Recover the amino acids of this structure.
């Protein structure tokens, strides 16, 4: 399970002292060993963070355990710090400070509930994003541990990549791949909204990408993972506007055979499934509901919750339902697109979103079904448009000067028909 080089004598000493501290928390060491076996931990980092969750954060054992790991870094054995099962490394504070210009305010690219995000460039010229926790509270510590643990487990083209982390007595830092096109919320409601860089094909591509990332978490990751905080600000966009699902601080690992759990409610109002918001019942279906809200937000550029006069709040599903009942799908789409969208794809995407946001979790589709529907709709329409364009081009080769004007009128009529 572990290679002999993973554990050095000093590490074993701190490991035992941490286990002893943890055994006080669990009242006996047997519980610790049993929990370790249940977790099926496969690498040193997983073990470290499991111990972190067990050990009282007020003790020095966790800090001593961290120091044991980072001492090797200072001694120059950098290769030993890289996980054998992951493509990330433990950074030194000096490296991160140099990359971010000492966390200069000009480098700040985002602000979250538990800290700030900074842009940086490493000595190797690699652009990075660094999340810096602003408070060493138990809640923030837990999120740090959960996010590093989960990002260390997953690798997918539609999930934000972890480059590494740093942890010490004073600092908790997570290093990610840098996303030059920021987050989806920046383009829908933020400083880039007026530029309308998200045309219709790009929006559908982002929706499908985010759904595929969720599909990996729900069905391929082992154990399965529920994100619990799917929203526009947690979908980042790379240089090619490919979606990357991010922020796993609220994520839940779901053991095999478990369909749902009851837990404290986490997440963002407007995106929460009713059964989760009211009773704390969390399942993969909760992520599907949140994705349905996100899909409607991508289509319409409306916020999930809208404040009406008199202080009344209306959610996006309530806003969209009357238009769907009337068949007025054109009234739903973002007006900044200026009519440049595929109406059949629009109708299909809206109906998929409404299936996802069904109030009964048993009626919601799986995220894999959502991916299949969205891909099928987009792929089918693009194939149809390619076929009709090809047919029109063939007809155009046969046209003469005498009927050129009449053909152009007919061609425009056919295009209008397919655009409906």
């Amino acid at each position: 399970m572990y290679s002999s080089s993973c554990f050095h004598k000093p590490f074993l000493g701190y490991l035992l002292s941490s286990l002893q501290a943890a055994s006080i928390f669990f009242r006996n060491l047997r519980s610790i060993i049993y929990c370790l076996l249940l977790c099926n931990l496969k690498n040193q980092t997983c073990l470290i963070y499991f111990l972190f969750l067990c050990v009282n954060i007020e003790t020095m054992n966790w800090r001593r355990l961290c120091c044991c790991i980072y001492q090797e870094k200072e001694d120059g054995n950098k290769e030993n710090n890289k996980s054998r099962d992951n493509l990330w490394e433990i950074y030194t504070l000096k490296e991160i400070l140099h990359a971010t210009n000492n966390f200069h305010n000009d480098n700040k690219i985002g602000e979250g509930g538990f800290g700030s995000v900074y842009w940086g460039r490493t000595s190797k010229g690699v652009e990075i994003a660094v999340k810096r926790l602003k408070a060493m509270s138990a809640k923030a510590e837990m999120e740090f541990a959960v996010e590093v643990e989960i990002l260390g487990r997953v690798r997918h083209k539609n999930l934000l990549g972890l480059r590494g982390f740093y942890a010490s007595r004073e600092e908790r830092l997570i290093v990610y791949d840098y996303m030059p096109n920021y987050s989806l919320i920046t383009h829908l409601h933020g400083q880039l909204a007026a530029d309308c860089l998200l045309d219709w094909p790009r929006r559908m591509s982002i929706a499908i990408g985010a759904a595929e990332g969720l599909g990996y978490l729900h069905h391929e990751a082992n154990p399965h993972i529920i994100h619990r905080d799917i929203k526009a600000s947690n979908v980042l966009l790379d240089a090619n506007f490919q979606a990357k699902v991010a922020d796993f601080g609220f994520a839940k690992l779901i053991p095999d055979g478990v369909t749902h759990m009851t837990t404290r409610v986490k997440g963002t109002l407007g995106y929460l499934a009713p059964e989760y918001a009211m009773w704390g019942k969390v399942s993969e279906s909760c992520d599907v509901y949140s994705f349905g809200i996100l899909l409607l937000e991508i289509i319409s550029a409306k916020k999930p919750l809208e404040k009406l006069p008199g202080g009344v709040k209306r959610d996006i599903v309530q806003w969209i339902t009357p238009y769907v009942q009337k068949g007025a799908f054109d009234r739903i789409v973002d007006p900044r697109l200026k009519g440049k969208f595929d109406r059949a794809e629009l109708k299909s995407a809206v109906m998929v979103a409404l299936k996802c946001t069904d109030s009964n979790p048993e009626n919601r589709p799986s995220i894999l079904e959502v991916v299949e529907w969205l891909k099928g709709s987009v792929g089918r329409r693009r194939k149809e448009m390619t076929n009709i364009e090809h047919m029109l081009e063939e007809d155009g080769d046969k046209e003469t000067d005498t009927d050129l004007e009449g053909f152009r009128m007919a061609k425009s009529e056919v295009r209008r028909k397919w655009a409906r």
User: Anything to note?
Assistant: Residues 1-85, 398-420 have pLDDT under 50 and may be disordered. Residues 383-419 form one domain. The longest strand covers residues 115-121.
